[in-house]
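This part of the workshop introduces the protein records we will be handling. The question running through the whole workshop is how a given chain folds. To make this concrete, we reproduce a full record directly below:
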Amino acid sequence: MKFRGSFNYSVDAKLRIMLPNELRAAMKEMNTGSLIILPGFSDKYKYLFLLPKAYCDKIETKLENLKFFDGTAQKIFTFFFGNSFEIEPDNQGRIRIPPLLHKMMGFNNDVVITGEGDFMKLWEPADHAAMLKEELAPASGRLEDLLKEINEKYGI
């Protein structure tokens, strides 16, 4: 099972959001109870990654191959490990956004949760809407370029 769909939710006063039933079902099928939350890589759009623990473990294994004495690798360590947190849904299916990440993203009362296949993203709604319009709307012409790029890179 993969994470699929887009969902609009509110952030409560304790920085919690409800995970949609569809995404919780995918977590259950993947046999993952915990998620790793960390900032997205875009300098244009605000979002957080929600990675199943096992998926994150694979990434961390690859990061271990980076050299300790390499300055560039140290920046990746700081970004990845210094800004990531392990979280678990509570009994009601809510997750809590760590205050550091909530402040970093500038989230207000609403978020968009998107299924992204093997992981999820938590978006600031205006950034999600802008990304859809600027990057994925057929009229932008960018979607076709992205599909060609992925096809050339991965042969899909």
Notes: The radius of gyration is 16 Å. Residues 6-125 form a domain with the Chemotaxis protein chec fold (CATH 3.40.1550.20). Residues 15 and 102 are 8 Å apart (CA to CA). The chain has one domain: 6-125.
